[in-house]
Design brief:
- This protein has a single domain, classed as Aminopeptidase (3-Layer(aba) Sandwich), CATH 3.40.630.
- It contains 6 helices and 9 strands, in the order E-E-E-H-H-H-H-E-E-E-H-E-H-E-E.
- Strands 1-2-3-4-5-6-7-9-8 form a 9-stranded mixed sheet, with helices on both faces.
- Helix 1 packs across helix 3.
- The two termini are 23 Å apart.
- The relative contact order is 0.14.
- The structure holds coenzyme A (COA).
- The site of coenzyme A has 21 residues, from helix 2, strand 6, helix 5 and helix 6.
């Protein structure tokens, strides 16, 4: 995916007020399909996020995430209020939310320092199309510039190879002492 950054990104302070969204880059992928990368989601995109979270046909999402509870059952407002910053990849032609990545402060058990989580999703028909490495890398660079010096962690269900591939690409490595804990998750940190 080719990404062309909007120079005004430097002036944006994060997170934005809820349901406001700013275009921070233009992107081209999947041949010549055009996308916009936004920070913050408008209400219509949040509705899509919720719909995807409740989609029982998306077995990968249901197996590998707790989005059904996070967005489908609990309130987006409550979640966003925990200082979450969400980036969206919007398909220009249809306006569809193709993918999302979000960050937020969350302490990592027994680890000192400031830790933030990362989580990412792609949605059909945009999943498995090679969009995620560059999209997540770009979003992480923007987020990191606003939060210098923080450490990151990701919680991954064993067997979710695509997720591990993205985390590895972003520079995360498996931390043995936090992986395969009582919940059975793999924890990758950076
Ligand atoms: C995990 C998820 C975000 C990956 O998105 P995606 O659309 O498949 O990502 P991409 O197509 O960009 O592929 C990402 C990379 O993973 C690699 N990959 C995919 N499946 C893989 C596998 N089984 N083994 C190894 N690498 C794999 C791809 O080759 C790709 O690398 P490349 O761009 O160098 O070819 C997506 O599958 C998803 O949303 N799943 C449901 C929710 C979820 O699991 N989120 C993560 C929770 S931690």
């Amino acid at each position: 995916m080719e990404i062309s950054e909007n120079p005004e990104v430097a002036e944006i302070s994060l997170p934005l007020p809820i349901y406001t969204s700013k275009v921070i880059a233009a992107a081209t992928a999947m041949g010549d399909e055009e996308f916009e990368i936004v920070v913050g989601l408008e209400k219509s995109s949040v509705e899509e996020l919720k719909k995807h979270a409740l989609d029982e046909n998306d077995q990968e999402l249901q197996k590998n995430t707790t989005d059904k509870k996070r967005f489908g059952e609990n309130s987006y407002e409550g979640w966003y209020g925990k200082n979450r910053t969400i980036f969206g990849l919007i398909h220009k032609k249809t306006g569809a939310l193709a993918a999302a990545v979000w960050f937020g402060p969350e302490p990592l058990a027994e680890k000192l320092g400031e830790w933030h989580t990362i989580a990412y999703r792609s949605y059909k028909p945009f999943r498995g199309k090679g969009l995620m490495k560059n999209f997540t890398k770009f979003a992480m660079r923007i987020y990191s510039a606003k939060h210098p010096g923080v450490r990151y962690w990701a919680r991954i269900v064993p067997g979710n190879e695509a997720s591990k591939a993205i985390a590895s690409f972003l520079g995360f490595a498996v931390t043995e002492n936090h992986s395969n804990d009582s919940n059975g998750f793999i924890i990758m940190t950076k």
